[in-house]
Amino acid sequence: MSRVSARIAAIAESATLAVDAKAKALKAAGRPVIGFGAGEPDFPTPSYIVDAAAAATKVVANHRYSPTPGLPELRQAIVDKTKRDSNYEITVDQVLVTNGGKQAVYQAFATILDPNDEVILPSPYWTTYPEAIKLAGGKAVEIFADESQNYLVNVDQLESVRTGKTKALLFCSPSNPTGSVYSPEQVREIGQWALKNNIWIIADEIYEHLLYDGATAPSMPVIVPELADQTIILNGVAKTYAMTGWRVGWMIGPKDVIKAATNLQSHLSSNVANVSQRAAVAALSGNLDAVHEMGVAFDRRRKLIVGLLNNIPGIECPTPQGAFYVYPSVKGVLGKTIRGKVANTSAELATIILDEVEVAAVPGEAFGPSGYLRFSYATSDEDIVEGIGRIKTLLTEKN
């Protein structure tokens, strides 16, 4: 008899966290590793948010259990923020506060999926999506859009994999891992297709404020209002406010679905830590000045890393319009000899790059097909120049 259940044994480790952990371990051992693996802003949480949390630690009520769906003040702040940022009007009973965005992802699928329900999963995708679908008893049906489509799927592709078992579509814009952003026209077309076919939309909007070159990322139920009753929106403070470690996310959806997800959370984790919730209230209720300052830095780094990568023979890097990732094709490098080694896959290439020049990137296999690397540019300009420079030196050496 197996010591670990088949359900849990089938889950793959988070590739992005694994790469980040390896890079940090090497750095701790004194190696000059440059890590592009983690999807984590390198800025400190803005001081006004930290101050609010510090004050909250002295309030005895925050030392106790609080309502599972979230502090009333935070749920109202989410309602107000959703109207402000998305022009989407909701009520507090449509909001559930979760322990980070990952818990929101899991609970969304667990709440609406029955065994063998299918979820269409555009690829490249964030590593947690297929595992959360699997845990919920569903089946992920992947469709791939390569760099020629700017990694954006179209309705014809969606329709080609739709079956009688299709329950939902995962929709993430701006995208992790590619940084690609769907236009309002594309959002409308996909939303109308989902409405026509009675398909749920699970919309991950956590990168909503990280947009460049005039791009917009409208919320799908705003573009297609009739979809509101079959849409679950996932979001959180992690990326926008540099609060990855605070663990505050949320779900927005129809009242019956949010009530069911709240029942699940009541047995899973109860309330989110109250001090973190108080910090999130401060974040969402404050202005976006600090967010815009971080966005200026991310935009500068985006242009820098895209230019450097496209100067490496064999690498083709589209310019992303959102998030803080680039997703270059490295297919032109595969099969070549690099310091006596041959990388036939992007996983093998990532290993060679880490071993030979101590630069950590996540291979495309973590997000879908081989042939790509994901670099997070949520790091310093100096590390970008040094890290990509090392890779160029490695890949342009004469063997």
- Binned strand content: 5-15%
CATH H-level name of the largest domain... which superfamily? Type I PLP-dependent aspartate aminotransferase-like (Major domain)
Count of alpha and pi helical runs = 14
Order of helices and strands: HHEHHEHEHEHEHEHEEHHHEEEHEEEH
pLDDT averaged residue by residue: 95
Taking the sheet with the most strands, its summary is: 7 strands, mixed
At CATH's second level, what is the architecture of the largest domain?
3-Layer(aba) Sandwich
The level-1 CATH class of the largest domain = Alpha Beta
Family: Belongs to the class-I pyridoxal-phosphate-dependent aminotransferase family.
InterPro entries: Aminotransferase_I/II_large, AspAT/PAT-like, NHTrfase_class1_PyrdxlP-BS, PyrdxlP-dep_Trfase, PyrdxlP-dep_Trfase_major, PyrdxlP-dep_Trfase_small
GO molecular function: pyridoxal phosphate binding; transaminase activity
Domain Aminotransferase class I/classII large: 32-391
Task: Describe the SSE topology.
Layout lengths: L5 H4 L5 H14 L5 E2 L11 H10 L15 H15 L8 E4 L1 H13 L5 E6 L4 H8 L3 E6 L10 H7 L4 E7 L11 H13 L3 E5 L15 H4 L7 E6 L12 E4 L2 H14 L5 H12 L3 H22 L14 E2 L10 E2 L2 E2 L3 H12 L1 E2 L1 E2 L9 E4 L4 H16 L3
Parallel strand pairs: 1-12, 3-4, 3-5, 5-6, 6-7
Antiparallel strand pairs: 2-8, 7-8, 9-14, 10-11, 13-14
Structure notes:
The protein is α/β, with parallel strands linked by helices and 399 residues long. It has two domains: 6-44 and 290-396, Aspartate Aminotransferase, domain 1; 64-285, Aspartate Aminotransferase, domain 2 (3-Layer(aba) Sandwich). The chain is built from 14 helices and 14 strands. It has a seven-stranded mixed sheet, with helices on both faces. A three-stranded antiparallel sheet has the order 9-14-13. Strands 1-12 form a two-stranded parallel sheet. Helix 9 (220-223) links the parallel strand 6 (200-204) and strand 7 (231-236). Helix 3 packs antiparallel against helix 11. The longest helix is centred in the last third of the chain and has 22 residues, at 289-310.
